[in-house]
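FW: tagging you since you asked about this chain on Friday. Here's the raw sequence from the shared folder, copied in full. Didn't touch anything.
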Amino acid sequence: MWSGLPIAYLSLGSNLGDREDYLRQAIAKLSAHCEIKVLNTSAVYQTEAVGYEEQADFLNLVVEIESSLKPIELLDFTQEIENQLDRTREIRWGPRTIDIDIILFGQEEINSPRLTIPHPRFHKRAFVLVPLAELTKEVIYQGWTAAELLAGLEAGDQGVEEYKNSL
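HL: got it, structure written out here
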């Protein structure tokens, strides 16, 4: 069933409560889905908040999956996980127990009201590019690898450090 299915990359982040446990639970829920195979998980990185900055630091990682789900079905499932883990949406880019974004889904390009793939800001965010570069050396966006995109960011846009504990 798994051979030849699209590879997708998901960015997970948490900055409320037991951040490590929320990340762990989200990965477990992804793994438990019969149409998702978790292939690899990056290290965990601690990052400063982006957008709304009056909040605690995030723990972030990227998960590489293979899935027979359509992109919108994957979005529905990731939002279901967020709801199960008490995610609320009170402030844009505000604090959250868990955030799951679909960064890339095979070669798909989608621009709909509910879903944009590739994720519209991933190539400007070190907290996505650092763990993504750890998982893939492939060209992923407009002829660039994640490492090349990361190298193009301003030093002030980084704010990412490897977290001392791994999941």
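FW: The helical segments are 19-32, 71-84, 126-135, 146-151.
HL: agreed, and The domain at 7-162 is CATH 3.30.70.560 (Alpha-Beta Plaits).
FW: great, closing this out.
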